[in-house]
Amino acid sequence: MNEDSNKDKTTLSINRRDLLRMLPAAALIPPVVEMLNPGAVRASQEEGLPYGQDTTSGKAFASKKTIDFRGIITPYTIPINEAKGDHFFSNHLFSDKEYWSERLSLIAADGYNAVVWMGPSELFAFWPDGGGGQLLLRHKEFPEARELSVEKSEQIIAQMKWLFRRAKDLGMMNFLHTHVIWFTKAFAHAHGLDHPMPISPTVIYFHNDGYGPPGKAKDFTNCGVRNELTRSYTEAVFAEFPQVYEDLDGFFGDLGEALPGDKGRFFKEAIAPGLRRCGRKPTFIAMHWQTPMESYLENVVPKEFYDSTWLGYHSYNSEQITDAKPYPGVFDWAEKTGLPAVVDVYPANITLFPFNSPRFAYEMTREMRKVDNFQGFIYFEFSKLSALFREALAYYAKNEEDYSDERWLNILTKQFDDKDAAQHMLRAYDISARIIPEACALIYSGSDNLRREFRVPYDFFNGQYEFSSMTSPARGQSLVPVRRYAEFVAKNPKRYKDNNGGDPTRYPFSTSVIWGSEGGSVFDVIPPIHMKKIRVMGEESRREAEEALKTVKKDKDGAAEIYQFMKGYQLLSSYYEQKVAAATAALVYGHSHRLEDKQDAERLADAAVASYVEAASFMHEQLDPIVTRIYGRPITEAYSGPVISELIASEKKEREELPRIFGWT
Q1: N or C: which end of the chain has fewer CB within 10 A?
Q2: What Rg do the C-alpha atoms of the chain give, in angstroms?
């Protein structure tokens, strides 16, 4: 073992107490605690329960109830040309009734009671899936919007009706995911809306640039013009949907990402009037996304506008998962609007690797029950390797039951025909599901536009983004941002470097809170401790999967693939630690201008590149074939982002441009 490895092990040993302290209570699952501090029994913060017995029972919470609305986003492909694949899933067709019967039966058996259909329609479009045109309606009020033959239109409507009826037969409600403003291209041509227009209070930039990734969505411009004509068209569309589809129970409606002007007011002016005159009373889950609360309270909440409106909050941890706890905005909006609250769970930061911890799902449902007026959730399933999490989220929402490994061990024992293998694999799932959330809690972005799943750009640290000095809102300020940490280390390395004040063996030989997010009450989590924890979790995930392989008797190929993903997690977690260390050192030098700090930054930046090349090469060689088989595409950052070879090139280029990126010159 080389000197650096010994140094790392010594540092970890010294900081075991700190690592335990800094690990969020929700993540202190038994294997991690035992691994960091063998033989230790640490009391739960809630009930004094020892870890390894019943750490997440929820017994400290008197208010326990069934979560009534358990929705799941169910994507469908564009109905016109029957192209395979869609934004989330692949290898099915819109008209494939065998596929849909199997899929709907599965989610009903898992415990979901609402299907939220997301796909191309008059009220939903996104690159590359299509939409916004005539797809699901006849357009009786605006015949100039028609684009399909009567035969094709009726064929699509019949299939959509069949989907809704099949879901109903399985005991599930049907909701349609919607955006505004959209209009068909035929409608745009008929009314002179099919050309670029100056950005104004009535025209949003999406109309000119296209709705979707910059440069790739040029064909998605039939949106974003707000006038009396498009208001009337939107009203007519919302009126027609419940009339055509008797089994449609409601809408999960974004109030208008592609909408100029006051988004809340458009609900009152266009959406609510259509709902009122549809002849039924569908529930409208009004997604507040990018709508000021003042407008929402004034234009959406009052019952005189529409009296079957629920709050739709996007999203539980914004457009990612970092914590079992919801972000503070969930509590704030649920309390102040007073509406039945539905929050979507949107783990867009874990798209291809397993996200498969039933314990994590349980912890989330426990936290959900603490929210005022909480009606339920809508789960976006990004990773196809998340069946246990998906089932557990609905199971623990539906049932007033404390967490136990037993149900999930039975499933895995059946899969692998060995209980010991099942136990190890469940632990691997439990631990690995925390790795990317924990990394994203520190390397923060609330948007799914900026990804750091398979590579972490330095731009997350250099102040380019408004949120560069933020960490997960669920943790208050106790997780110290990298930029703040580096600033104080540069000022006084003896006091602040690798120090949260909790080590009595370090000068001045007394524990003392030095970062002060809550005065003297909380020992804050500093980036080096946080990232060591993540690296150790990666190592443990791989070890558990490796142990499972020793006794697997059935589905050995499946177990071997899970091991490869866990090795991928281990290599990525090591890279995350190296990259954060390099960014921290670069920031320190930017403040201190000390030669030794520059040398430290350059050394760590070289180590980060080496770590990334190792991780990325493994992912390309071992995981790309698996991912391509499962998802129909190789590993990329985001759906259409760079492939691994391009990610490696970007990592190396960053190293060359380190002085520019961090403003050293």
Answers
A1: C
A2: 26
The whole-angstrom separation of Cα 532 and Cα 538 is 10
- Dump pLDDT digits (tens) for 47-81: 222 222 233 433 434 355 889 999 999 998 877 76
Residues 212 and 250 in one domain: yes
Judgement on whether residues 56 and 73 belong to the same structural domain of the protein: no
Task: Tell me which residue of 344, 268, 345, 278 sits closest to 309, measured CA to CA.
Answer: 268
Q: Average pLDDT in the 623-652 region?
A: 93
pLDDT in tens, 241-279: 999 999 999 999 999 999 999 999 999 999 999 999 999
Host domain of residue 181: 69-403
Is the same domain home to 637 and 494? yes
Cβ-contact 616, 643 below 8 angstroms: no
Whole-number Cα distances in Å, 294 to 218, 264, 267: 34, 9, 14
Residue 287 belongs to some domain of the structure:
yes
Residues 97 and 153 in one domain: yes
Structure tokens given for 540: 């443990």
Residue 331 CA to its chain's centroid (Å): 19
Token pair listed for 527: 């980036």
Q: Is the peptide bond before 508 cis (omega within 30 degrees of 0)?
A: yes
Q: Quickly list H helices, 262-342.
A: 263-266, 272-276, 293-299, 328-337
Q: Enter the tokens of residue 239.
A: 């009126």
Q: Does one domain contain both 171 and 273? A: yes
pTM over 0.85: yes
**pLDDT value, residue 217:** 84
Token pair in block for residue 194: 């099919």
Structure tokens at 126: 């996104």
User: Quick one: average pLDDT of 594-605?
Assistant: 98
* Residues 279 and 302 sit within 8 Å (Cβ to Cβ): no
Intra-chain end-to-end CA distance of the chain, in Å:
38
Query: HEC profile for 586-642?
Result: HHHHHHHCCHHHHHHHHHHHHHHHHHHHHHHHHHHHHHHHHHHHHHCCCCECCCCCC
Q: Collapsing DSSP states into helix, strand and coil, what is residue 416?
A: helix
Contact 584, 486 (CB under 8 A): yes
Q: What is the pLDDT of residues 327-353, one digit of tens each?
A: 999 999 999 999 999 999 999 999 999
Where residue 511 falls (left for φ over 0; alpha for ψ -120 to 50; beta otherwise) is beta
Please list, in sequence order, all residues whose beta carbon lies within 8 angstroms of the beta carbon of residue 139, skipping any fewer than 6 positions away: 145, 146, 184, 236, 240
